[in-house]
# Entry
Amino acid sequence: MKVSVIGAGAWGTALSIAVARGGADVVLWSYDCEYKHFDDVEMPSNITVTPEMEKMRDSDAWLIVTPAAFFRETLRKAREFYMDQPIIICTKGAESSTGAFTSEMLRDELPECKFFGVLSGPQFAAEVAQGIPTGSTLAGDKAVVNIGKQILNQLYIEPSDDIIGTELCGMGKNAVALICGYNSVACRGENDRAMLFTRAWNEVVDLGIASGAKTRTFLQLCGIGDLFLSATSPTSRNYSGGVAIARGLPPAGTVEGLFALGGLIARARALNVPTPVLCEMRDKMGL
# Structure
């Protein structure tokens, strides 16, 4: 089997390593032919890194792992090489200018795609690259879930048919992790932190239900699992980004929570879902 992974940041490279270890040949697309290097992890020989999208044409599946800010642009560039492969979206977040989820951008830019799914869960890239056990929710129809299990056989895959809920979990945990990092510095006590954390996540769940998501999704790996990982660990870029903001410093690297928070609020307004904590925290952080 040949799998194309589109995006060679930390998560794209880690997924490529996991897929290659599982037995597939991997084409890792990188716009500049660079990729993330992990300490003490050797790149498998069945990974080809390339800036040429042409080499993705004959793949059996695509995994899209570009940051949300470049998701639509990347799809537009890739469209001429798309040959009806199933697609698994591995990006968490939404388009900052429109609030569109990645699945909505995919439908816009690749309307011919018949089978796609969304992968989301507690996944620190370095640990996946090192082969440390982890799991993910894969939301989509049975055909996509089955091929996803085959490709991602190094991970525990939890199936779901709730695409919108899985996306909202990924977007919501980024925003809440950012808030938790900020409040680890700005809050007056542990009780205050716990209260704001819980209320913020409840607003994400309320928005999910109003969007047609299933409540159970927020209790799965893509929900409480990913939230626990991202909102409690300084290793999380969203958590550490919130800490930086609270200390008056610029966040380091790509911090998806910066875009996710505004996107959640915009969607909530469109659906008349109250989000007083998310709005308060956005204003406090000056976003």
User: Anything to note?
Assistant: The chain has two domains: 2-160, 163-285. The domain at 163-285 is CATH 1.10.1040.10 (N-(1-d-carboxylethyl)-l-norvaline Dehydrogenase; domain 2). The first helix runs from residue 10 to 21.
